[in-house]
């Protein structure tokens, strides 16, 4: 089971933190600090797995961002490593060519994506398309509302949306 | 006309966009490069620091190209940026906040910004009517602050309120923030449950989804019943997204309170056949949990799970589930995990799996990570289910691919897989010894630790010394306490299990204590003391004293070290007290002086001090009892004085006991504290018969007889409640929490029953004599207590040392019994390769291996025959079903009880042994090659290499043997086992273990004073 997911940059700033087990705030702080310290200075040649207390942290680095996942000691490390990559692919698809800025400014959307991907500490859906579609549905409600509010009955707005979205 | 208008509008919009871009360019003319989307973003947020702009994702090959000039893609991203400001739910303020956080150069600056932000938000949120859209943004900002580790608890209630909103977007935001803010134990949960209940009934499936996500995070054990029926209902919802989430919610419920969903198993089974693969995949999560709790009741699922796995592997699922060209790998992995549980130790279930496993092994490409993940999971599954040679071979092959890989990740997986496979067949490790050693030497800590784990699993008595030494070396250098504890306990465990000699064991323990003393379980210290106290048992007094004096010497040396852990000091104190003066090498006052130093240096540690005081007392007692005079050292006197006034009653008592002891006569002292009696049981006569005279006398003088507690309760009003005897006899007179029972229902006993020692039931109210009697009882009990102090540990662990079962802990004891009857033959064996560690064997046998093989196997065969007799050998072949090493050990054990006749037989089998007597000359010249030494780690591997690998007959026979294991009739082999080939092969297979046993015996004997096994001449005498 996944205990928590952290996105941190090289400086250790948390970009996203999702916990699937209850932790105290101070404990969260400590965990984030420790995980960053464990992960940041590892040789890229080394394994992407680090023992962390009684669990394992699986991490992967994308440019300046570290995606870390804390899983049980019995879990399949490679699978979770790929799970991180799948998550990044989904993000990439959703934000089309994702960058750290996207994640920072849209962190709430990243949380929503994560909720579609992982639920209760387990992989819930592994089909990229299914997740993207679900997110699209959510976005659609939003845009439908927007369109309705701005201009009523403008058939070309769909094309406009192509530019602005 | 309409078309034209439309076109115009479009044009206008495009122009607008272009203009914005142009403006941006103008505004930031100083920026030199504008070639990629990176720059585009850069332009847009000019003040963004470099660390925010790590854009393109390098490691994976992503399908999105970044073109060198503004493309549609970039326009899109620009549009996104534009949208963010106006519609993404975030205002300029929020963007500014994020930006300024990004720019913050230090943690304190970041904190300052966030605190200011929180202050603003607090002010704004206190406003009674905030527009809802604004509120949404505030909450997001709060969530951001919370994510960065600041307390935003003042806004939690607003998040809860927002979750109650009717607008779906706001509701979602509400749920999102609630899930981020609250844990399942929070007080506000109770407020959200109602909302969740309502939303689970909603017609809009998006609302239901949002509620289900919140359910997974927020519902705790008490609130499960409130939502459970609705969640179960949702399992049949037409939308697959809802079904999936409902399944996951149930999975969560099972984690929180397993009993809540146990009745829903049938629903899970139904969902397993869901049309949507996503729902099926999600169902595997709760099923996995249920099956790992109790596999036996889900055996009927094996067939359907296997067929699902087969379909997945055959790419029957929609291609959207493909990942890097593997069909639904995550589902495959989950399925394999479940199958591993279901097939473990179940031959019938496993039979269904072999085919699909073989197919996956065949199909999986090992070039991608995900392919390897599946392969690894297959290996895990194979190692868990009932073994099948064909599948096992595939697993071994996959594992060796992992180990040979360059990637550290794969090596790590390989080591782990190897650790699983050697449980089935320990010989697999042989061919990978070099890879394993490479991993052990690797600078990567994770890999190293994994390798240590593997070594731990493959430790045998032959390689224990090398492995434990390595572990300790590593342990000394690590700082992580958690892992240090683990590795220390592993060292201890291995040393306890396989210790070749007691001296070695004590050495290892000393090292462990020295470097990880405070992290070791106190039990280990007690074991060590017990070992030193018990020694070898009764037969070998000399060795015992030798062992003890060496322990004392080593401890006196170690005491010089500046900083020692408390636990280790306790051991040292105890040993010095008990055996410090036993061999007469050190004077009592010297030891006492040392002990005083210890107590002084650790004046804050009461336990160590108590041990030291007791040890000093013991030294004095032994010396005085032996009639020697011990002068009271001044520092000792000050120590005792100090302890007499100590706040700790325990310390005080020890000091007073010490003083009282000094006043006694030597005979009394000897009775109180007999030397070297820590292992003797203290017999406590609970009936105290030696007091009966005294009691009779007291009763004759008019005292009241003793009434047992149960009787006393009935007659409570006749005896004064404050009676001394009452208190004395009530062992736990603490606060009573249960209500006082009524005296009525309890029928008063018909007559006052005299207890065992009182005979005259004269009743009087005078209680004084009774209490006096109890006082004496106490006094008498005190006596044993003094003795108990003599061995502190036994008093602390329990009154009685557990002597049974201990002997088996020490390696040589287990082995000595089987090898005892074979003294003669074992020493020959030893001369060839028993004593010599496996690395030297390796060296010696490298050249002469070829011609040696037949000799070895023939010799071993003969040896086995002489050791176990024909019958045992046959039995051994019968037993050779699955795990050769274990079986052989078992065989050794079973043959143990029939020693005497065999012993007579042994000398009659000389010839091959004599052949081998030439060998020591070869083995006696070991050149030191560190690499080879390392190979010693895989000691038995080297040994059995000799035995099994090149011998064609072994290979030939082994395969069909293995094959037949899994056919339904393993007994066929048994019936054929008269075939000599089979016998020889199995014996050869078991060779290393027999050798181990012999070596064990040899070392044990060397430690003792028994005939030196290495001496061939002695042998000749025996042979006549």
Features:
heterodimer; A: 165 residues; alpha+beta; five-stranded antiparallel β-sheet; two-stranded antiparallel sheet; 7 strands; B: 1024 residues; mainly alpha; 67% helix; 0% strand; extended; disordered C terminus
In brief:
Chain B: Residues 742-763, 810-905, 970-1024 are annotated as: Disordered. The complex is a heterodimer of chains A (165) and B (1024). By secondary structure, chain A is α+β, with helices and mostly antiparallel strands.
Question: Could you describe the 3D structure shown?
Answer:
The complex is a heterodimer of chains A (165) and B (1024). Chain A has helices at 25-40, 77-95, 100-105, 107-117, 128-150, 157-164, and strands at 2-9, 14-19, 49-52, 55-62, 65-71, 118-119, 122-123. Chain A is an alpha+beta fold. In chain A, strands 2-1-5-4-3 form a five-stranded antiparallel β-sheet, with helices on both faces. In chain A, β4 and β5 form a beta hairpin. In chain A, α2 runs parallel beside α5 and α4 (107-117) packs across α5 (128-150). Chain A is globular, with a radius of gyration of 18 Å. In chain B, 67% of the residues lie in helices and 0% in strands. Chain B is built from 51 helices and no strands. Chain B is extended, with a radius of gyration of 39 Å. At the A-B interface, β2, α1, β3, β4 and α2 of A face α1, α2, α3, α4 and α6 of B. Chain B: Keywords: Golgi apparatus, Membrane, Protein transport, Transport.
The whole-number mean of residue pLDDT values of chain A reads 86
Number of beta strands of chain B: 0
Number of helices of chain B: 51
Major β-sheet annotation of chain B: none
Structural class of chain B: mainly alpha
Helical amount of chain A:
40-55%
Low-pLDDT runs of chain B: 23-71, 77-88, 718-731, 745-857, 859-928, 934-992, 1003-1024
The tally of helices of chain A reads 6
What is the radius of gyration of chain A computed over CA atoms, rounded to a whole number of angstroms? 18 Å
Going by helix content, strand content and strand pairing, the class of chain A is alpha+beta
**Overall pLDDT score of chain B:** 70
**How many beta-strand segments of chain A?**
7
* Through-space gap between termini of chain B: 125 Å
Quaternary form: heterodimer
- Global Rg of chain B: 39 Å
Spans of chain A of at least 5 consecutive residues whose pLDDT stays below 50 are: none
Query: What percent strand of chain A?
Result: 15-25%
Strand order of the largest sheet of chain A: 2-1-5-4-3
Largest interface: A-B, 83 and 107 residues
